[in-house]
Amino acid sequence: ASSSQYQYGRPSDEELIELTCVGRSTKPIRDLLDYVKMWSLDKEKALTVIRRPANKERSRYGGVWSRVSSRPSRPMETVVLECEQKARVLTDINEYLHPSSPR
């Protein structure tokens, strides 16, 4: 069963899905959720996700960033910037994505 959540009288961008499993084992549902998670992560590797700060009401109940959209990632060679500016941007990106940086 599926139903849309409403926030301030309009549908939110999140959807509630209820999964039911016949029998005592929840393994089929866990396997499905694991598969969907891996599929989603794999799909996002080729995308650049654009986010914005969430409003105060929403930030109380979850993350403080809302996903606005996503676009296919593109090579840096296609980005037109002065060489020095591009180098600074790449340095910032690499620092931000470095495993030792806080999540």
From TrEMBL:
Residues 7-79 form the BCS1 N-terminal domain. It comes from the Eukaryota. It holds the Pfam family BCS1_N. This is BCS1 N-terminal domain-containing protein. It comes from Cryomyces antarcticus.
